[in-house]
Amino acid sequence: MKALLDASKITKEEKEQNPEAVYQALRYLQDPKNHGKVDKFITQNESDYDELPSGPARPVISPLTPLPLNLATIRESREFPQNVSIGGEPIPPPIPTRPERTKSIYTQPVDSTDSPVYQQPRPRNGSDGAAGPVPTKPKSKEEQREEVLARLRQVVSVGNPQKKYRLQQKIGQGASGAVYTALDLKTGELVAVKQMILDKQPRQELIINEILVMQKSRHLNIVNYLDSYLVDGELWVIMEYLAGGSLTDVVTETCMEEGHIAAVCREVLQALQFLHEKNIIHRDIKSDNILLGMNGEIKITDFGFCAQLSPEKTKRTTMVGTPYWMAPEVVHRKQYGPSVDLWSLGIMAIEMLEGEPPYMNEDPVRALYLIASNGKPRIKDRDKLSPHFCDFLDKCLVVDNNKRPSASQLLQHPFLRCAQPLPNLRALIEAARCSILRKQEINVI
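-> structure tokens emitted (445 positions)
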């Protein structure tokens, strides 16, 4: 623990002022068995550098910038998202770089009963059908793997996906697999194929969790799940393809106006309202998990860490998410509910405003300490923001989660009335793409 504390750069004065916050910040990495860092199933790019990539200032795009192509209406683009193209063919976004510390984590306290949506059925006795005792003998890795495979076979389709889809271009790469665009040979539409090597998944049950949630979460603001297959130790998950890439590209490469931010927040809130009404908490809202379409589609993705609440279990305690976007109650290991997603949305709004979340230049442990001790982060140049935007941020970032508004309540906030038409995001997407490609060309040279 001393090595972690020394590396975190938490000062002596900070340790003395708020020792409880220091303790909570260190807990998630203290025990590798129970508090280890988890590599997400698929990340945009593997990288070991410590600082955000440097480069030219983010381009400022005026909200009145003329769009280069005639765009369909939002209704048309939502109903026919696969028809979107540039110059006749959909263009995959370039693969950007992201620091390792922006990856999600999943930590399990020793005494926690928290679990994902999928739960292995407990054995029952033969007399009255009541739940029997939990086996004390731990299962071997091979037994656990066979259980996961058996459960996966119940939720995936039978057949060879290579006869239905032709892989094209890689658009994402992680330690456990890759993401490709693929052509649906029957419809001619582009889809996204996430390939996951099962043996490289640190928590294989979370994969089942992700599929089950996506199967029952059909919504205009959620990336549509299409199909899944098991292929020689790999899981193929077929999803709709959004050619605009992740919101992270726009956040880091351009300057977003309040109208752009309001539009994104409104669409994400609509997805969160839908999920929360189903008692599902996403638990990892951040720009990396928001995908964009070229006609303005805005959709939440990555449901591997979501949690299903029930009448018997209305709160959670597990530290899940990404440190910089975590709500204070998560860091403090207090019970929490759906409102953690609204805190993360507020942090993501700051990310859209400033180009990165608060404390991004800090070590993750120190960032957790600052979240635990400071509560609501300071917003740069707050006096330059509109009163409605300031109030929206304040509502999202209420430290007392019992007083934080719900997604339904925030959808009524006046800040969202300034939202620009969704097709206006296309200019930002294209500007971000050009900026990334230009940096890649410079690196090659």
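The longest strand covers residues 165-174.
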